[in-house]
Amino acid sequence: MTGSPQSVKIKTPAKINLLLHVKGKREDGYHDIVTVMQAIDLYDELLIEKADNLELICTSPDIPSDEKNLVYKAAVKLREFTGINEGARISLKKNIPVAAGLGGGSSDAAAALSGLNRLWGLGLTVETLCGLGREIGSDIPFFLGGPTAAGYGRGDELIRLSNETDYWYLLVNPGIMISTAWVYSQVDVSADNIRCNRPPLDSENWIGPLVQPNLELTKEVVHIKIFLPDGLRLDGNNIWLFPYNDLEGVVIRRYPVIKKIKDEMVASGAMCALMSGSGSSVFGVFRDRDSAERAGRNMQHYEWRTWIVKALDSCPYHIVS
């Protein structure tokens, strides 16, 4: 172990899914997906302090503070992997809505792995932490690297990207908590059903570019084949995408307010609007902050929470102390 601080404070970001394609169901019960994830500047906060025992304190009554919490699971997983018996008092301040498609729980767990690695002086690599995180939740490896990536498999196999856009996002949450497991259990993965529930690929609504940085040169022969779904277009190292989410149809049938928010976004000037993850949050893409703010004001008469956010362009975790 190396030297370690007495406490670590971390801001943990939310994410949005700029695209989410469901390929089919896997033998392990999960679904194969292709997604593009982007970390945004909406944060929870973790304060991790040295203590004799392991303790989690959360500001939100909707969040469990025991082994059901991903943060607690991450701490236990880290102790089991390293064989240490260190304690920590973890205080979690929630700002990201719960069960809202924004990855708040996974982001908090990833931050816990990173913060405890530092607090306990373990010296584990990011790759090792990603391996541990993958056993807890599919989105955790993304949050340990970020801030932009294409995900495949369960969404935990990642290709890091660079976001070259300058868009602003209006994020709206209607206050509905949606179970990710329920949404995926309702998805009809037949090709005909998936296609008929997608919007037409209108050329005006493609966004980008995202950039795949050059890979390191190697003398070895390497063949990499990644499934390229409708809605992703390659131009050299540039990636353009048409935002769609194959989970929207399931959620909108039960919660039509999602479609109402999307329609309001577009009517208020959004280039496009999309549900993030398994919902219930919706984001609109805007070319400038003023346009996003005007749209946000148009929605103030609803009992919805709104944020004007920007894509993060560097490592998503900001260690305050």
Overview of the molecule:
There is one protein chain. This protein has 321 residues and is an alpha+beta fold. The chain folds into two domains: 157 residues, Ribosomal Protein S5, domain 2 (2-Layer Sandwich); 143 residues, GHMP kinase, C-terminal domain (Alpha-Beta Plaits, 2-Layer Sandwich). It is 26% helix and 31% strand. It is built from nine helices and 15 strands. Strands 1, 2, 3, 4, 5, 6 and 15 form a seven-stranded mixed beta sheet that branches. Helix 2 packs across helix 3. It is globular and about 55 Å long. It starts with 6 loop residues before the first strand and ends with a strand. 42% of the residues are buried.
Q: Which architecture of the largest domain would the CATH scheme give at its second level?
A: 2-Layer Sandwich
Straight-line N-to-C gap: 20 Å
Shape: globular
Determine and state the CATH class of the largest domain: Alpha Beta
